[in-house]
Structures are given as structure tokens and as C-alpha cells.
UniProtKB/TrEMBL annotation:
Name of the protein in question: Aminotransferase class V-fold PLP-dependent enzyme
Organism taxonomic ancestry: Bacteria, Bacillati, Actinomycetota, Actinomycetes, Pseudonocardiales
A molecular function (GO) term: transaminase activity
Species this chain originates from: Amycolatopsis heterodermiae
UniProtKB keywords: Aminotransferase, Antibiotic biosynthesis, Lyase, Pyridoxal phosphate, Transferase
SUPFAM superfamilies listed in its UniProt record: PLP-dependent transferases
């Protein structure tokens, strides 16, 4: 046996190579309140309940109580409408999956069901359609504002539609879709309407209380039948917890699963998972209970100020342009032709910041994405100074040059017939073969991937993911 202290030392050594999860330096993937007691409280609560199993609420009534408390808190925040029920899930993707599953199974008479969603909807809905066998109807958004087009969404609804989706806000650009108009169109056809508020649901209500003009997007809007909101985002809870709310118990019923057709216990599931550790649930319950309404209002105040300062500062940097009109905590910006944005991301990383590259898609150009949290408050000037320096460095270094032979090799690949040998050859050509690992600078790789059509990029990255997860 290895001594516990040695194991923990090894874990700390492994974690030393990760992006920082605190301090506001990683503007993607993590949500930092900047309050150290929140982390310690969440960890302690997680440890107290990690061995409990959410599979059977009658065996562990503490988990039942905590889940109902979290659902009630989310319901109060998102309209405080009577009759709303919900479930705590492992994250936004599971919440979105269940919203689609519930809509599909509510209409077994529709043999080829479809979902209608704007092209800016989260890819979790692509995953849901893939897993549950629904036809996806992608509706173009406004090419300038990136908001869903209510008329186009309404026109896309037909007799096979079981669910319409909109975002509050969309992840890619941080803009709020016209929820009321889309919900009205769905209701007129008797179709469910899901609002993906995974990233905005716990912060937009507080922004509204602080004076921001936030159009209604929750259960106060007629026609909204379900909403997803992640607790591990702007509720600042440990990962991974999300809440899926339904406007009524009848609407929720079809996302539940039961099976008595085997000799074991009758299997009852409120989520896709069966066994569920009580740890994440208890951690979220503790953090929400600790921070309370006043605490979240203070965190929203800090976050809103940070967003405002960063947005204004980005707009002042020569060559940068904000995409759309973000109203929440997400900012996406693109650049002019004088420099490479992927190089800017690399330069920011050398200065201790992680910003997320996003590839061009339809009218959305290649851009850099920022997820701003309360922990960014106070460091906005430093961030903007480093961003301006990174743009200058990218402009000085010139465009990323792709080896024509490698570009031709990629252009000749067919995602449907890509072989392991072809992928290995591409890795070698791109300098990723052998035991070299990831390069320090990703701009050349991202520039190469940007030349590939989306289906090929998906296949290449899946192959790369498989290579990473090979011991």
C-alpha cells in the first residue's frame, strides 16, 4: 500500500500541470466566486455525503430533502410560479438531454420526432438528438446579432416537432434569444418549449435586480415548459450539479425511468444515472444555503462590474470587435485581418491567462471567448493590458503559415473513411507524433483545424481524443 500522504503528494504534482481553477486567470471551464470559504465548505459537505446513494431516496432521505431544497431555490429564482417541479442532475448536458427525452417520450405516437433549435443552441442538444433518435431542425439566427429568429423558428415547427429550444443566453456569444416570441409560437402549436439557461439562469435574475435590462425568459413567460440552470456555474457550487425544472409534474413524468421487468429491485431513476453520489448534491446544497440571496447579489454585482470593464476595454483595443450584444457574463470578440486570433490566445497563455478559441461557423467568425466570474473583479486592468500586448505580439509575428503539403493532406481526408494510419500520419506531419505531447503553442494546430470542414474536424478531434485516452 502507498501511504496516503504520498498519494496526495502525487496528486498535487499531477495537478500542478493543470490550468488554474482560482484567481480568475482561466476564463473558461471554471467558475470562481473568489471566496475561499465557499470551496472549503463545498469540499467538507461533499465528504459528509459522498458515500450516500441518490438511487433510493427512501434509504437516504437527507438527499431527498437537499434535492427538493435546491429545486425550490431554483424555482423561486426563475419565476416563482406555482406547480414547478424539477430534478438535480450531473450538469447542463444531462439536464438538456432529459428535457429532450421527456419531450420525445410524451409523444410516442410521433414515429419520427424532431426538435427545433437555433444554430447557436448548445451542442448538448445535438448530442440529445443523436442519442435519442430525433431529427434536428437547425434554424439560422440573425447573422449580426446572433439571436434566434422567432419567425424562422415558428416556420420550422411542424407536426413532428416535440420540442423547441432557445438560449438564455447562448454560450458562443452570450446573447439572449427572444424567448417570449419563440415560446408563443411553440404554445400555438401545442409544442413544449425549453429554455437553456444553464449558464445564465442563476445570474441573469440578479443582473436584472441590479438594473440590467433583461427581458423575461423564465416561467413567467407563457409557453415556457422547462428550464435548465447549472449550479456549478454562477451558483458557484462544486462540479457537477445542474437543475432541470418543468412547469408541472405531468411534464416531468416522461423524463423519469422505471423497470420492473427483471428479478432484481424495481429500478426507478429520476435522471439518466442510477447510482448517484450524494457528494455533489450536498456540496451544492451547502454552498447555496451559505451564500443565500444577499451573497449571490453581491457576487453578481462584482461579476457585472467586471464584465462591463472588460467589454469596454476589449472594444478599445485596436483591431478587436465584440460579437453581438452580450447581456450576461460571456464575451466573444473577433479581430481584423492584421493578426491571427489563435496566436493572441497563445500569447495570453504565456502571460498567465487562458482564453477559449472558437472556430468560425456560418456568420460567426473565428473568435476568442471569455467566461467572466466574480473572481475577475479587480484584475480587469491587468487582463486588458496583457490582451493589448498579446494583440501587438500577434500582429508583429504575422499570420500563421500552414505547410501546403499538410494542408493538401488534410483536404484529401474523408471523415467517413479516415484510417488510423492516415491520422497517425497527420499527427506526425503536424508535429504531434510520438511522445512529444501537446505543443506549447496551439495556433498552428488551430489554424490547420480551421481549414477542415466541421465533419472532418469532428472526426480528427475524436481520433485525437482517443489517442489521449490511451494509457
Amino acid at each position: 500500500m502507498n501511504p496516503p500522504e504520498d498519494v496526495l503528494a502525487s496528486l498535487r504534482e499531477l495537478r500542478a500541470g493543470d490550468l488554474p481553477t482560482h484567481g480568475g486567470r482561466t476564463l473558461a471551464y471554471v467558475y470562481d466566486s473568489g471566496l475561499s470559504e465557499v470551496d472549503s465548505l463545498g469540499a467538507a459537505a461533499h465528504a459528509l455525503a459522498s458515500s450516500a446513494n441518490g438511487l433510493d431516496p427512501t434509504a437516504f432521505p437527507s438527499l431527498l430533502r437537499m434535492e427538493n431544497d435546491l429545486v425550490a431555490a431554483a424555482s423561486r429564482l426563475l419565476g416563482d410560479v406555482p406547480g414547478v417541479v424539477g430534478s438535480v442532475t450531473s450538469g447542463g448536458t444531462e439536464s438538456c438531454l432529459l428535457s429532450v427525452l421527456a419531450a420525445r417520450d410524451a409523444h410516442p405516437e410521433i414515429t419520427a420526432p424532431s426538435i427545433v433549435l437555433p444554430t447557436t443552441a448548445h451542442a448538448a442538444f445535438h448530442k440529445a438528438a443523436h442519442l435519442f433518435g430525433l431529427r434536428r431542425i437547425d434554424v439560422p439566427v440573425d447573422p449580426v446579432t446572433f439571436r434566434a429568429d422567432p419567425a424562422a423558428m415558428a416556420a420550422a415547427i411542424d407536426d413532428s416537432t416535440v420540442l423547441v429550444v432557445a438560449s438564455a443566453p447562448s454560450y458562443a456569444h452570450g446573447v439572449l434569444d427572444p424567448i417570449a416570441e419563440i415560446a408563443a409560437a411553440a404554445a400555438a402549436r401545442g409544442v413544449r418549449m425549453h429554455v437553456d439557461a444553464c449558464i445564465g439562469g442563476w445570474v441573469l435574475p440578479y443582473f436584472a435586480r441590479l438594473g440590467a435590462e433583461i427581458p423575461p425568459f423564465d416561467f413567467r413567460v407563457p409557453g415556457v415548459t422547462s428550464i435548465s440552470v447549472d449550479l456549478h456555474k454562477y451558483a458557484y457550487c462544486p462540479k457537477g450539479t445542474s437543475v432541470l425544472l418543468h412547469a408541472s409534474a405531468e411534464l416531468r413524468r416522461t423524463h423519469y425511468f422505471a423497470s420492473a421487468g427483471w428479478p432484481g429491485y424495481t429500478m426507478l431513476n429520476t435522471t439518466i444515472q442510477s447510482t448517484r453520489s450524494g457528494g455533489p448534491l450536498a456540496a451544492a446544497w451547502a454552498v447555496v444555503r451559505h451564500l443565500g440571496d444577499d451573497g449571490y447579489l453581491r457576487l453578481a454585482t462584482s461579476t457585472r462590474e467586471a464584465v462591463s470593464r472588460i467589454r469596454a476595454g476589449v472594444a478599445e483595443i485596436e483591431g478587436l470587435r465584440i460579437l453581438g450584444d452580450p447581456i450576461s457574463t460571456l464575451i466573444a470578440f473577433t479581430g481584423d485581418d492584421g493578426f491571427d486570433l489563435f496566436t493572441v490566445a497563445d500569447e495570453m497563455k504565456t502571460r498567465g491567462w487562458y482564453v477559449q478559441p472558437q472556430f468560425a461557423h456560418l456568420s460567426s467568425p473565428a473568435n476568442l471567448h471569455l467566461t467572466v466570474t466574480a473572481a475577475n473583479h479587480g484584475s480587469e486592468k491587468e487582463f486588458l493590458t496583457d490582451l493589448a500586448s498579446s494583440v501587438d505580439a500577434a500582429r508583429a509575428s504575422g499570420p500563421v503559415v500552414i505547410d501546403p503539403a499538410v494542408a493538401d493532406f488534410v483536404a484529401a481526408l474523408d471523415p467517413a473513411t479516415l484510417t488510423s494510419d492516415q491520422f497517425a500520419g497527420l499527427l506526425t506531419a503536424a508535429g504531434l507524433g510520438g511522445a512529444s505531447g501537446l505543443p506549447d503553442r496551439m495556433a498552428p494546430i488551430n489554424a490547420l483545424l480551421a481549414t477542415a470542414p466541421a465533419p472532418l474536424r469532428e472526426r480528427l478531434l475524436l481520433e485525437f481524443l482517443g489517442a489521449l485516452y490511451t494509457p
